[in-house]
Amino acid sequence: MFEKLKEILVEEINVNPDDIVPSAELINDLGINSLELADLVLLCEEQFDIEIDENAARTFVTIQDVVNYLETIVK
Question: Given 3-state DSSP classes, what are the helix, strand and coil percentages for the chain, each rounded to the nearest 5?
Answer without folding.
Answer: 60, 5, 40
